[in-house]
What we know:
CATH architecture of the largest domain: 3-Layer(aba) Sandwich
Helix content: 40-55%
Strand order of the largest sheet: 3-4-2-1-5-6-7
Number of helices: 16
Radius of gyration: 23 Å
Strand content: 15-25%
Oligomer: single chain
Number of strands: 13
Distance between the termini: 21 Å
Order of helices and strands: EHEEEHHEHEHEHHEHEHEHEHHEHEHHH
CATH topology of the largest domain: Rossmann fold
CATH class of the largest domain: Alpha Beta
Amino acid sequence: MSAERRAPARIAIVTPGTSEFDSRAHRIARSCAAQGDTVTMYARREQGMAAEEHVDGYRIVRVPLQPGDFPQKPRTPPAGGAGRVVASARRFGRRAWRRVRLAALGTGIGHRLELFPMRPLSWAEPLAQVAEPHDIWHGMWAGSLPALSRIRSRLGGRTVYDSRDVYLRSREFDGMPRVQRVFMTALERRWAKGADAVVTVNDAYARMLTQDLGVATPPVVRNCPDRWDPPEPRPDRIRELLGLPATTRIVLYQGLLITNRGIEQSMHAILDVPDAVLVLMGSGRRDRYAEMAVGRTYTGKVHVIDAVPPADLLSWTASSDVMLMAIQPSTTNHLHTTPQKLWEAMAAGVPVVAADMPGMAAVVKETGCGVVCDPTSPTAIATAIRTLLDDPVAMRAAGDRGLAAAHARYNWATQFEVLDGVYARLLGGAG
């Protein structure tokens, strides 16, 4: 925690997703609640989700994307002709907005505009209508920026933009034409410069954000899990779930099941690794990869399992022999990524095979927690996996080095000190 403990405050975490698998948002909420803050997490609500719940000392309030997304109580319009005019105007506005969005989605720029800023703007107003005053508003990724701006203008408080990646250099945006980039960057820059603080997850992203957004170099709050001591004997949850013998080595990919994460290359690579299987654990395009896994080429070598709650994740990670991160060098964001799964593997004492790209390679080489490889080559990936699996002593040593680094530096307690220092500065300046 901060060297000088600050007074308890009202902290709001604003995450445009549903928050189910947002480990970072929940870690921040738990840490703040543990030191006496009153914490509310505002997230997006989908059908079947509770509008409000209480977990680990904080409250989660979920808000539909737009007020019309869920059935509403009928409004009583003004009596007479004025009521008919109001009702007609509302219907016209809803139809016009639907047509604009559908027309835009038919183009490349329309799809990007739907992601940013149209969808975030759609959620900002419903959120602002239910939000309560807080001292700090901590917004998760670029999708929270319109909401942060609108809420602060209505309710006051200080705002933190948590740029967990460089969003406009990510997979949907990195290759967009210059005119689109100028427009979207101007939007993000305007909202980001209106925030009281910007934080991010690694040094390379901090440099890019300074350049793109014209903000002071953001403090780095790495997306690390809590310190954890793997039990002995190690958990064996994956083999137990899949009914695999103890002699089968588990190579684990965890995270979003989408393209450009090296999943296809990893599936091909595992065919050249004897007595080993690749386990894909996560959400996203799960059905697509599950169908591939039962095809003739990969049957028995690739398994797809569901994502698990963040609280259980490390025990599942520790059930693997190697963590595989063959993320593709397809975007600027990917080149410099230090994904959460890297820190989770280290926390669980599991050696890693990581893409030889500036972000991950620097951590792997610094800590000695595994090996790097060319992520575009299935042959190189297979060779790297065998380098670890075929030398149990070296494999265990790499896992131990990762675990030691996680305990010493790359853990949430250490990272939260940085974030809490940002909060303390903002609260002190708020008078």
